[in-house]
């Protein structure tokens, strides 16, 4: 299966190791992965702010870059949710809307793809890690991402997943919500941190980098320099390498040095 990998802006700019980990997993699941160099943003930030024109243009770029692939995979539920709205932007251009609908039907969030659509199951991994999982709003509510990350983590020997209270409640990020309503967002992030830390984890896991950056930022501002905040792909990829006897290089996927910025 030939996969077009949609990197996403945040992964590309802030934590590219998630992208490399995702590609490792996709290849381990029997896929041939390509990363179109001319891909751009999914358009969600502008579209959610009322800039419909940029959303429609970026939808066309997505079509141009990814239409030839058997499937498209992205390590972000929020980006995939935006992509699935593309056909509705072209109600007055039915031919274009139909092409987009066909492409959207084979566009998947990474964890869902690995669970339900990959050519073969992931090989078992092994990684000693006590973790808890945060369910991101877009992945959970728009795409039904709930059991998939837990099912994948269960294949990684040594990962002890301890469920936090209110795992499905928003972390307070919500894109521009966290900027426009900062005090409310901060309280929500504090609640999420408190519930997560009550499980005494080595790491807080998730499937959407926006949420992870929000949670990590709040932890660091509260003085927590120990708890890691990781994408599930990073953990699974490290577990794969460890199980094969090839330990990840320091900072490759997990155990990244913590840096803070006030």
Helix-strand blueprint:
Elements (H helix, E strand, L loop, with lengths): L1 E4 L3 H5 L2 H13 L3 E3 L9 H5 L3 H15 L4 E4 L2 H7 L10 H11 L2 E3 H7 L8 E9 L3 H7 L3 H7 L2 E6 L15 H4 L1 H16 L5 E4 L2 H13 L6 E4 H12 L19
Parallel strand pairs: 1-2, 1-3, 3-4, 5-6, 5-7, 7-8
Helix pairs in contact: 2-13, 5-8, 7-9, 11-12
Describe the structure.
The protein is α/β, with parallel strands linked by helices and 262 residues long. The chain folds into two domains: 114 residues, no CATH class; 121 residues, Rossmann fold. Helices cover 47% and strands 14% of the residues. The chain contains 13 helices and eight strands. The chain has a four-stranded parallel beta sheet, sandwiched between helices. Strand 7, helix 12 and strand 8 form a beta-alpha-beta unit. The longest helix has 16 residues. The protein is globular and about 55 Å long. The relative contact order is 0.14. The C terminus is likely disordered.
């Amino acid at each position: 299966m030939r996969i077009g990998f949609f990197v996403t802006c945040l992964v590309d700019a802030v934590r590219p190791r998630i992208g490399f980990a995702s590609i490792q997993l996709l290849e381990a699941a029997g896929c041939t992965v390509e990363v179109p160099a001319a891909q751009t943003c999914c358009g969600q930030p502008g579209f959610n702010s009322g800039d419909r024109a940029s959303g429609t243009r970026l939808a066309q770029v997505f079509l141009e870059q990814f239409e030839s692939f058997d499937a498209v995979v992205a390590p972000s539920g929020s980006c995939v949710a935006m992509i699935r709205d593309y056909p509705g932007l072209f109600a007055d251009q039915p031919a274009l809307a139909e092409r987009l609908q066909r492409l959207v039907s084979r566009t998947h969030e990474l964890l869902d793809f690995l669970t339900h659509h990959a050519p073969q199951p992931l090989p078992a991994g092994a990684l000693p890690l006590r973790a808890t999982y945060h369910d991101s709003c877009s992945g959970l509510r728009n795409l039904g991402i709930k059991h998939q990350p837990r099912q994948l983590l269960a294949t990684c020997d040594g990962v002890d997943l301890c469920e936090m209270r209110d795992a499905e409640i928003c972390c307070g990020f919500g894109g521009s919500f966290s900027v426009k309503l900062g005090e409310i967002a901060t309280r929500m992030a504090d609640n999420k941190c408190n519930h997560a830390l009550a499980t005494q984890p080595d790491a807080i896991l998730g499937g959407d980098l926006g949420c992870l950056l929000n949670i990590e930022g709040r932890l660091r501002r509260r003085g927590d320099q120990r708890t890691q905040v990781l994408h599930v792909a990073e953990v699974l990829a490290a577990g794969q390498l460890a199980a094969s006897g090839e330990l990840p290089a320091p900072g490759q996927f997990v155990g990244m040095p913590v840096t803070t910025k006030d």
